[in-house]
Design brief:
The chain is α/β, with parallel strands linked by helices. 34% of the residues lie in helices and 24% in strands. The protein is built from 10 helices and 16 strands. A hairpin with a 4-residue loop joins strand 6 and strand 7.
Length: 406
């Protein structure tokens, strides 16, 4: 009994030390005004506030035997001037599919929300209908459609045959990033396409990558808008879409570079090996919150809302559909889940925006490792629900629910 009491007292002391209210942080941050102006935050103006929900959350983790060193938490006000929870926020954790938010932001920044990927065949030469021969090269112009399916490619190939081509005197040339179905890289997709062409009787001299689109368009496929693609990817946590989108953007290092150079995340705070969040990736809770803050401001500048590219918990189909479903919480959370049961001892993450009556929108990142995913999810939900109630509940008119009226 004495050992149990000693354990409780030491845990309580640690929690109070981690969450004690102080008037300043050592690390200065900055926010972006709606007009795009960067506004540095004076460290002396940042408050750290003790919340009962944070204390209870750490108690629950400790009482279940989870090491607090394996957990990361950061909850901040949207403007970054108030910190409501902070545990290991400068430590890199495996974010799992939260990395998809970084991939999404990089795509939005580079291409724009209304961008449509196009994949099309072009005849760079003349077609002899009698001999069904293209005297020249067959070019596939592609911009890396991450939702291009094997059926879409089969239809494009059939259109080549219908155009009267069964032989190409030149090469099959793939001009841009190209992936489809389960072929996540340009090289694999190009080889698969060449095999499909041969299977239907279209012969080419060779296969190459690179060059420019030219010639007469024979067939094309246009994707949905990038905004719609990203919403589906994030709501359902689609690894294939995120991997193929990453390929179109230049790969994991391109996303990592975007976070460092464009979002302003310190290079030591992030490492990306897969643009879907699979396998081994690292990001600190501090960097994850900064990512969401910059994304929210960027979306505002383009007349979009977070719920246009991220799911609303308890509302949208996908990984958050069955979480925060009660009337007092439904629609209060917009964000991204992450799950890797077999990596880093078990990973469960949740990051995004929570809407509260008294504290306004807050940004949060909850990273749990070395434990069972199901237990971590329950603790995450209890934590955020407690925080929302402690913050006056959800607003009377919650903008995050607007998707219900669409």
């Amino acid at each position: 009994m004495m050992m149990y009491m000693k354990y409780l007292l030491s845990t309580t002391f640690l929690i109070l030390w981690l969450f004690c209210p102080i008037q300043a942080q050592e690390v200065s941050t900055a926010t972006t005004a709606p007009n795009g102006e960067i506004r540095p935050i004076n460290p002396l103006a940042v408050e750290r506030l003790l919340t009962a929900s944070s204390t209870n959350y750490l108690h629950r983790l400790a009482l279940r035997g989870f090491s607090l060193e394996s957990q990361g938490v950061l909850i901040e006000s949207l403007d970054g001037r108030a910190v409501y929870a902070d545990l290991n926020s400068s430590v890199g954790f495996n974010p799992a599919s939260v990395i998809k938010v970084a991939t999404s932001f990089a795509a939005l920044s580079k291409l724009g929300p209304e961008y449509h990927f196009e994949t099309g065949f072009y005849a760079d030469g003349t077609v002899n209908q009698k001999t069904r021969t293209l005297n020249g090269n067959l070019i596939l112009g592609t911009t890396g459609d991450p939702m291009l399916s094997s059926l879409d490619v089969a239809r494009l190939v059939r259109d080549i045959v219908r155009a009267g081509i069964t032989r190409v005197t030149g090469d099959l040339i793939v001009t841009g990033p190209f992936s489809y179905g389960l072929y996540y890289t340009t090289d694999r997709a190009t080889r698969a396409l060449a095999q499909t062409l041969r299977r239907v009787g279209v012969r080419t001299e060779g296969v190459t990558n690179g060059g420019a689109v030219r010639g007469t368009k024979l067939a094309s496929h246009v994707s949905s808008s990038l905004r719609d693609i990203l919403f589906y990817q994030n709501a359902h946590s689609s690894n294939p879409i995120a991997e193929r989108l990453g390929e179109a953007l230049g790969g994991p290092k391109a996303i990592e570079t975007f976070l460092v150079k464009d979002v302003g995340i310190p290079s030591n705070d992030v490492y990306i090996s897969h643009t879907s969040g699979l396998d081994f990736n690292r990001i600190t809770p501090r960097a994850a919150v900064q990512l969401f803050r910059e994304l929210v401001f960027w979306l505002n500048l383009t007349d979009l809302q977070p719920q246009d590219v991220l799911p609303v918990a308890g509302v949208d189909a996908g990984t958050l559909q069955r979480r925060f479903v009660g009337e007092e919480f439904r629609g209060a959370v917009i964000g991204k889940t992450g799950t890797l049961p077999g990596t880093d001892g078990g990973v469960s993450t949740l990051a995004g925006i929570a809407y509260t009556r008294n504290r306004g929108p807050v940004l949060f990142a909850i990273f749990n490792t070395k434990g069972p995913v199901v237990t971590y999810r329950r603790l995450q939900d209890e934590f955020l629900k407690g925080f929302i109630l402690e913050s006056g509940g959800i607003p009377e008119i919650n903008v995050s629910l607007h998707r219900l009226n669409n």
